[in-house]
C-alpha cells in the first residue's frame, strides 16, 4: 500500500486517478517542514521522515506558486503567504509589479517517494545520486541515507482577479489558457495541473516499481 502523506483528501482522490484502485491511502503525518529556497529538499526530507514513521512506501508532495515579477516569491512560502497576506493580495502585488504586462507565474509540484530501497538512476525523475537530490540532503537530516525519488510537474499561467467557485488555495487567481483553476471542473484541472503532471510521471514509473 502506498501512503500519500497529506491532510487533504482531495490530493488522494487526484492520485487515485493515476494509480490503480485501492493502491493508495491517506496518511495524516505532521513531518518537519524545513526552510529551503526550493521545493525539492523540503519534499525529500518529509518523505524520509514519513517513511521512518510509517514503515511502508510513502509519497510526499510540496507545491508552490512562483511569480516571475516577484523573483519567484512566494515559492516555498506559498502557504504562509496565503495565510498572512491572502491570495487576493498576492495576486494584486504580482499584477501591480507586472503592469501593464500580464502577471506571469508558474505552479510547481515536487513529489518525493521513499520505500527504503535503492533506485536506478535516470534523468527524470531524480534519485539520490543526482544534483537535485544531493541538494535535498542536509547535515541535520538523520535519514539522509534513505534514497528518495523526485517527480516534478509545472504549469504556467498568470495571476488575475479571483474568478470561479471550485478548487482551493490560489485556484481562483491562477489562470491557465484563459480559465482559472477555480473555473475548471476537477477532471480538467487534474489533467493540466502541476500536481497532475507530477502524478503522471510518478504513476508511469511506479507501475514498473
From TrEMBL:
It comes from Haloplanus rubicundus. The keyword Secreted does not apply. It holds the Pfam family Ham1p_like. SUPFAM superfamilies: ITPase-like. Belongs to the HAM1 NTPase family. Keywords: Hydrolase. The lineage of its organism: Archaea, Methanobacteriati, Methanobacteriota, Stenosarchaea group, Halobacteria. GO terms for cellular component: cytoplasm. GO terms for biological process: nucleoside triphosphate catabolic process. CDD domains: HAM1. One of its GO terms (molecular function) is nucleoside triphosphate diphosphatase activity. InterPro entries: ITPase-like_fam (IPR029001), RdgB/HAM1 (IPR002637). This is Non-canonical purine NTP pyrophosphatase.
Amino acid at each position: 500500500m502506498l501512503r500519500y502523506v497529506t491532510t487533504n483528501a482531495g490530493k488522494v482522490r487526484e492520485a487515485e486517478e493515476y494509480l490503480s484502485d485501492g493502491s493508495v491511502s491517506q496518511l495524516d503525518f505532521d513531518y518537519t517542514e524545513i526552510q529551503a529556497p526550493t521545493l525539492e529538499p523540503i519534499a525529500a526530507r518529509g518523505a524520509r521522515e514519513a517513511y521512518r514513521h510509517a514503515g511502508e512506501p510513502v509519497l510526499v508532495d510540496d507545491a508552490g506558486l512562483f511569480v516571475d515579477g516577484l523573483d519567484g516569491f512566494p515559492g516555498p512560502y506559498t502557504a504562509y503567504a496565503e495565510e498572512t497576506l491572502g491570495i487576493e493580495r498576492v495576486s494584486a502585488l504580482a499584477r501591480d509589479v507586472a503592469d501593464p504586462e500580464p502577471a506571469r507565474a508558474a505552479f510547481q509540484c515536487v513529489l518525493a517517494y521513499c520505500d527504503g530501497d535503492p533506485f536506478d538512476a535516470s534523468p527524470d525523475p531524480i534519485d539520490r545520486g543526482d544534483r537535485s537530490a544531493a541538494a535535498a540532503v542536509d547535515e541535520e537530516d538523520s535519514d539522509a541515507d534513505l534514497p528518495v525519488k523526485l517527480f516534478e510537474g509545472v504549469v504556467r499561467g498568470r495571476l488575475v482577479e479571483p474568478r470561479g467557485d471550485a478548487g482551493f488555495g490560489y485556484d481562483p487567481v491562477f489562470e491557465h489558457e484563459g480559465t482559472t483553476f477555480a473555473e475548471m471542473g476537477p477532471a480538467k484541472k487534474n489533467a493540466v495541473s502541476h500536481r497532475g503532471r507530477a502524478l503522471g510521471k510518478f504513476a508511469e514509473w511506479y507501475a514498473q516499481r
